[in-house]
Design a protein that fits this description.
Blueprint (H helix, E strand, L loop, with lengths): L5 H4 L1 H94 L15 E8 L6 E9 L5 E7 L2 E2 L4 H6 L5 E4 L12 E9 L1 H16 L3 E2 L6 H11 L13 H11 L5 E2 L6
Parallel strand pairs: 6-8
Antiparallel strand pairs: 1-2, 1-6, 2-3, 4-5, 5-7
Length: 274
């Protein structure tokens, strides 16, 4: 028995069906091609449209951007100018303040001078000591403000820091020194003083005499020639009145008596015969 297919049974029908199928596929391809072409065309058109819109938008935005940039430039310039004006104004105010402050302050004054500035002097002094004290003198020249600067010290005392020569010096003469001793520069030990002033010419002569007494007074003897007797000789050379019993006086009493005997006068002029 022979089996016949549908195609064999109806070849015309199959051909017709095949043709219709082919036509449909062809139509479908053409339609797909048209749609693809239409899409591509539409995409290109859209791209050109967007590009045109972008260019038109850029053309519309260009003036706006320019105006904004100009405004920012103007603002920065104005701010800079304002800052410069403020700095100038601040500098002017500061200058005015300096000027006003300078005008209100007193002018700088030099170190005040004194009427005694530069004067030559001799200062008779007494201080405390382990026993009954010590008499000595300062001499030199005051500074421009009338204060004591560099000084020389003269005074007669046993040539030792030991108390032994001092004790023995009450019995017989002991070697002496005529410079400063311990405590002569300390104001806290001062008990009395009497200062006199001299002109330069007179001061040179007095200072030379003091040096002479220092060089020619090698011994110290308590009841004969001691610190008060040494100062009494110098005061007498200067024309001052001195206590008759200077050798037996306590140092403080001697200084106070010397001042009282001369009425406390401070200006000394040497006699012409010195």
């Amino acid at each position: 028995m022979r089996v016949v297919s549908q195609e064999d049974a109806c070849p015309k029908h199959c051909e017709k069906h095949h043709c219709e199928k082919h036509h449909c596929e062809k139509h479908h391809c053409e339609k797909h091609h048209c749609e693809k072409h239409h899409c591509e065309k539409h995409s290109v058109s859209d791209a050109f449209a967007r590009h045109g819109k972008s260019r038109r938008r850029q053309r519309r935005l260009s003036p706006v951007v320019g105006l904004c940039a100009a405004a920012m430039l103007i603002a920065v310039t104005a701010r800079t100018a304002l800052a410069q004006d403020e700095r100038k104004e601040a500098a002017a105010v500061a200058a005015k303040l300096v000027d006003s402050t300078t005008d209100s302050l007193p002018a700088a004054q030099p170190h005040p001078t004194s009427k005694l500035g530069g004067r030559y002097f001799v200062d008779f002094r007494s201080r405390t000591a382990a026993s009954y004290g010590h008499a000595f003198l300062w001499y030199g020249r005051l500074n421009e403000r009338g204060k004591i600067g560099l000084i020389e010290v003269a005074g007669l005392h046993p040539a030792s820091d030991s108390p032994v020569p001092y004790i023995l010096g009450h019995l017989f003469p002991v070697p002496a020194e005529t410079g400063k001793s311990y405590g002569d520069l300390d104001e806290q030990y001062l008990t009395a003083n009497y200062r006199v002033y001299l002109k330069e010419a007179d001061a040179k002569r007095v200072f030379a005499y003091i040096k002479h007494k220092q060089d020619t007074s090698p011994l110290w003897l308590a009841g004969v020639y001691n610190c008060t007797a040494f100062l009494a000789d110098i005061a007498g050379y200067m024309g001052l009145r001195t206590p008759a019993t200077a050798t037996w006086m306590y140092p403080e009493d001697f200084i106070n008596s010397l001042r009282d005997l001369n009425g406390g006068r401070q200006e000394i002029s040497l006699a012409a015969n010195h």
